[in-house]
């Protein structure tokens, strides 16, 4: 099965299994370039202003970039470098890690869900469970040799940032700073190291089609040299152009549910290009499977009835993986 990996060969033509129908193509010439995605400087000493900026971004875009976020630059650069080194491994080495089973805690795979999809996506990815680290790191790739140490350090830093952001995101809703910890618990952490090789026909396929994230919060480190992330805003796709040393934050479905629809988990996608490969590292903070989810009680009232019913994350995640990635917003299945 590992021959399905697209990072093991150079492709001069796009295989038919990646070609989207005419109505389902990225229409790259219609994308709004250099769009005004909110940017928040976390070094601003005026915390109230930062909270207000984040709240506005969560309501309007569901996406924002953060500067001066506290992740050491050397940690970010090392993570990106070792990710590139991993995807340069020999096909034989990568074949040892390949799996198309979404239940596996560590797997190298391709597209999104090759077991059930009819059209594939131009992406290979390494999926890692990251918390608690001591439990999962022994299963991570042993090659390249620095991989485990470098990615472990990055995971720890990203987790700390995630909980700092949670505090500001939740205060913007008028809830207590520790509300997330009380309701979502310890939280799991996953990572997807995404590799999008050069594509012979980028106008015919996607790296990942339009989707929302099923988790609570996503922190994305993008390739600063190669753009590819796009966000849907008011019916138009807008490019998210990487800023030096910035990280992209996007809200997952669980924060939209918790906010009773005030905050947005918006459609986004990854497109590819014919000139350069692209790498991104996405870190996901996720509720534990048994946690009860739904709108915060304080945000429900006579004038704002509950938009979503209560459910567990296990129930939600199973629904998400049972569908195609670009079907209707999974939260629609949980509306009251």
From TrEMBL:
One of its GO terms (molecular function) is dioxygenase activity. PANTHER family: OXOGLUTARATE/IRON-DEPENDENT DIOXYGENASE. The keyword Repeat does not apply. GO terms for biological process: defense response to oomycetes. Residues 187-287 form the Fe2OG dioxygenase domain. Keywords: Dioxygenase, Iron, Metal-binding, Oxidoreductase. Its cofactor is Fe cation; L-ascorbate. This is Fe2OG dioxygenase domain-containing protein. It comes from Triticum aestivum (Wheat). Belongs to the iron/ascorbate-dependent oxidoreductase family. It holds the Pfam family DIOX_N. Signal peptide: none annotated.
